[in-house]
Amino acid sequence: MLKICLLALVLFTSMADTRPLKIQIASDYNPSLGEEPRDLATMLLLNVQRELQGRVSLEFIPASRLREWRELETYPNICLYNKVKTAEREAIALFVEYPLMAFPANRLILRGHPNLPKKLSLKDIVVSKGLRVGVTKGRSYGKEVDDFIATYRNNLIVGEGANSAYRLREMLIQGKLDGIIEYTSVFIEHHKQQAQRDGVTYHQIESADLTIFGYIACANSEQGRKAVSLFELALENSALQQMIIDAHKGLFFKQEMVFIEQGLRDAYNIQP
């Protein structure tokens, strides 16, 4: 009788180990509507789930951007995705080591300086070389750039008002500025004709992030830790990593894809 009970316990434990980890994803994607996800982040998350071959079961639950973080802090089986890491968020959530998405950061966009390298120091450009670079008052460009602006404000052209970013983009093309700090996609969308962008170059800002990454983040709980471990296991797969990199192609302007692809390769520790 004892042997039968022990055997039953072993079989039960074995069956329990094979059951998928059930995770709720707070999101505005609702698969019950029968529609395919339209955004790349959701499609990539579903690919990560498929890579785990039934070891995790994802249930999407509706939640606003504000509510989803409250859900994560309240319930132990909640995960979010495509989230930027910040110190405040890392204090309440467990982040997967590898990113799911990558986005362009602000660039130093110059006109009439074609021989400068792809990566530049703002201090060298603005202080040493004395180039006229425009920034918008009150806008956050990321910690490193914001700190530079606060220190060298008198060396910059600071635009004010609701339309200041628009005016700075116009001033660059008119030759009234040497450069601006802006998103590549925003600048190209503003100046759609190639003739308007003749002589324009796009540069990574030294000490600033190459790209901005979107990660999977889970509740700081036993279920959350298990989910993070499984997601990391999936994202260590080289074929999935390459698929994610390839999926970004065509999503951003070609001027940005150099930064995006290299940023993802570095994040995944892919050797040249």
Briefly note the structural class of the backbone: alpha/beta
The averaged pLDDT comes out at 88
Quaternary structure of the protein:
single chain
**Rg over C-alpha atoms, rounded to the nearest angstrom:** 23 Å
Q: How do the helices and strands follow one another from N- to C-terminus?
A: HEHEHEHEEEEHEHEHEHEEHHH
Count of discrete alpha- or pi-helical segments spanning 4 or more residues? 11
Instruction: Estimate percent helicity.
Output: 40-55%
Shape by Cα distribution: elongated
Spans where pLDDT lies below 50 across 5 or more residues: 1-16
**How many DSSP-defined strands?**
12
Largest sheet: 6 strands, mixed
Strand residues, percent: 15-25%
Amino- and carboxy-terminal Cα gap: 61 Å
Q: In words, what does this structure look like?
A:
Residues 1-16 have low confidence and may be disordered. With 272 residues, this protein is of the alpha/beta class. The protein has helices at 2-18, 40-51, 65-74, 87-90, 122-128, 143-151, 164-173, 184-190, 222-235, 238-248, 254-267, and strands at residues 21-27, 56-62, 78-83, 93-95, 101-104, 107-111, 119-120, 133-136, 157-159, 179-182, 200-205, 211-219. Strand 8, helix 6 (143-151) and strand 9 (157-159) form a beta-alpha-beta unit. It is built from 11 helices and 12 strands. Helix content is 42%, strand content 22%.
Which labels suit this protein?
272 residues, alpha/beta, six-stranded mixed beta sheet, 11 helices, elongated
